[in-house]
Amino acid sequence: MDILDHLITLPWLLIGHLFFWPILIFAGLTAPWNKVSGRMKHIWPGLCAGLLIMWQLKAGLAQGISIHLLGATLMTVLFGRQLAIVGMSVVLVGTSLIMTFNGYDSWLALGLNGIISILLPVYISYQIVRLVFLYLPHNFFIYIFLSGFANAMFTTGVVGVTSTVILLMTSTMDSNFLLHNYLPAYLLIIFPEAFITGGVLTLFVVYKPQWVLSFDDDLYLKKS
């Protein structure tokens, strides 16, 4: 989701930055950068570039607000929590630069956008992957369906509902618009998000399982 500065009151914009930047810095300092070295060193930036393009394919619902596919679940399943946060933050900054070039200001809202579009979905996606690993059989199809398809579907739905609540609390937008236009429109992207995430994850696991940091070839394929 992309929110412009003028829609959010200043105190909430500042709160967004106070929460977002420390978490981003911590993620960058603790990220397992060694896992994206060697043959994988082009995969992480390549997917970040692909995600930047995907974020530009968005639906504008009103002046100052638009929605797009997130890609957070896919990034989290492939690279883990810290690398997903850092990579998607790069995408967010790139998106803000493009919006500035087009005459829109979103820098003050970058922290709040980061919380809604990055921190929240990455955290939810990571917890689902963790719970699937800990409490369910290590089966290939369970991994693909729950960590990929179902994970993306649930995460996107939670982000849609949560972002609506946040906008009701922090923005100057009409509540009827948010409840009857924004929320239903956001929930419509649940299925394409799940389809793209599950499809891409399946391709990676089948052809390049070594690129998926949450997938253990021996653990899942020998017991499926």
Tell me what the structure shows.
By secondary structure, the chain is mainly alpha-helical. It has a single domain (2-221), classed as Arp2/3 complex 21 kDa subunit ARPC3. The chain has helices at 10-30, 43-56, 72-79, 81-101, 110-135, 140-170, 175-187, 190-207, 217-221, and strands spanning 2-3, 59-62, 65-67. A three-stranded antiparallel β-sheet has the order 1-3-2. A hairpin with a 2-residue loop joins β2 (59-62) and β3. α1 crosses α5 (110-135), α3 (72-79) crosses α6 (140-170) and α6 (140-170) runs antiparallel to α7 (175-187). The longest helix is centred in the C-terminal third of the chain and has 31 residues, at 140-170. The chain is globular. The N and C termini lie far apart (37 Å). The relative contact order is 0.16.
What's the short story on this structure?
This protein is mostly helical and 224 residues long.
Features:
224 residues; single chain; Arp2/3 complex 21 kDa subunit ARPC3; 70% helix; mainly alpha
> How far do the termini sit from each other?
37 Å
What number of structural domains do the residues give? 1
* CATH structural fold name: Arp2/3 complex 21 kDa subunit ARPC3
- In oligomeric terms, what are we looking at? single chain
CATH class category name:
Mainly Alpha
What is the radius of gyration computed over CA atoms, rounded to a whole number of angstroms?
17 Å
Instruction: Give me the secondary-structure category.
Output: mainly alpha
Kindly report the spatial arrangement of strands forming the biggest sheet. Answer: 1-3-2
Tell me roughly what share of residues is in helical segments. Answer: over 70%
Judging by the overall fold, what is the CATH architecture? Orthogonal Bundle
Mean pLDDT metric: 88
Order of helices and strands: EHHEEHHHHHHH
Any idea what the shape is?
globular
Provide a count of the helices. 9
How many DSSP-defined strands? 3
User: What's the story with the biggest beta sheet?
Assistant: 3 strands, antiparallel
Poorly predicted segments: none
